[in-house]
Amino acid sequence: MAYSVKSKKTGTDYILHSKDVTLKGGRQQTIYYFAKDERDNALDELPEGYELMENSRTGLPMLRKAK
User: Fold this and answer.
1) How many domains does the chain have?
2) Per-residue pLDDT at 43
3) Where in the sequence is the domain holding 9, given as residue range(s)?
4) Which of 22, 39, 42, 66 could be a cystine partner for 51, CB 3.0 to 4.6 Å?
5) Total-model pTM
């Protein structure tokens, strides 16, 4: 089952996804993002070393490196 979070501000459910991208210098990097629908690259849990936070102005969930 995909990792989902409900926005405290809007009440909308968001599902965590990841994607491997190639940067301009040729370096590979994994990006994490939230979407309203479940796609093929949905994750089952938070990546290690990251924590969940919510943007207080928009209510959108975001990941940040754990402190």
Assistant:
1) 1
2) 96
3) 4-65
4) 66
5) 0.88
